[in-house]
Amino acid sequence: MTAPKPILKHMMALGLCAAIGFGAVGVGQAQFTPNASAATSYETKITSGVNLRVGPSTSSRVIRTIGSGEMVHVVGQANAYWLHVFDKKGNSGYISAADKYSTWNGPSTTATSSSKASKVVSIAKSYQGRVHYSYGVRNPSKLIFDCSSFTEFVFAKVGVDLKWGTSAQKKQGSYVSKGNLRAGDLVFFDTKGSNNGVINHVGIYMGNGQMIHNTPSKNGIAINSITSGYWSQHYVTGRRVL
Fold first, then answer.
1. Of these four, 146, 155, 169, 239, which has the most CB atoms within 10 Å of its CB?
2. What are phi and psi of 114, to 5 degrees?
3. What is the DSSP string of 28-93?
4. Where in the chain is the domain with CATH 3.90.1720.10?
5. What CATH number labels 110-240?
């Protein structure tokens, strides 16, 4: 039976509003928004557990953690730091584009890593004179950190999830020798007495033998050499997380 014309007009109006509404939701989100069924080929392997988030930011809600070995479909790159993906459960979201998290080999190459490193160093430097040091504290709203909560804070701004604490950060990423350090690497130190390799401090390598770090001796951000003087004598190891 054919519906009366007034009802048809009402139904058409509702359909148009729904279409406009759904279109508006997509504004500012991923560049591509196909249905999960469109991801017929899950071509990218997760190599290290990574959070799937609703938006391309570490402040966005976590949908789930995708475990190592799971396969995802990469829809596109939201920016230099985030991939838009579908998982096999049908979830659409964003994961870090850092090489350590997946086998995706798109535009996020060495050049992008170098760009990230420059941004990390620039961000860290921008907090000179603004950050205060307090052991065991992570308070971004008041810019009060210890050494590792500061590195966690800085790297989060380029989409890299670091754990809080030197004991955790010294295991993240991959080992890099002192002679092969490059900007953006984490550098670790033993500042308790003679250097016996027990890590209790972390900084960010800037290049040219210098690091930037949050230190109690300055009660804030300092830049120091790691090739001579105190920090050279207390250097333990480096890790690459970009």
1. 155
2. -65, -40
3. TS-S----GGG-----EEB-S-EEEESSSSTTSPEEEEEPTT-EEEEEEEEETTEEEEEETTS-EE
4. 110-240
5. 3.90.1720.10
Three-state DSSP class for 223? strand
Cβ atoms within 10 Å of 133's Cβ, excluding its own: 21
Question: Token pair for residue 12?
Answer: 């058409």
Catalytic residues: 147, 201, 213
Round to whole Å and give the CA distance between 143 and 131.
5
pLDDT (tens digit per residue) in 83-142: 999 998 889 999 999 989 998 877 544 555 678 899 999 999 999 999 999 999 999 999
Read out DSSP for 148-171?
A: HHHHHHHHHTTT--PPSSHHHHTT
* Strand order from edge to edge, sheet including 92-96: 44-45, 71-79, 82-87, 92-96, 50-53, 62-66
Q: What count of Cα atoms within 13 Å lies in the side-chain half-sphere of residue 196? A: 3
Pick the CATH number of 32-108 from 2.30.30.40, 3.40.50.150, 1.20.272.10, 1.20.1250.20: 2.30.30.40
DSSP H or E segment with residue 174: strand 174-176
CB 145 within 8 A of CB 133: yes
pTM over 0.85: no
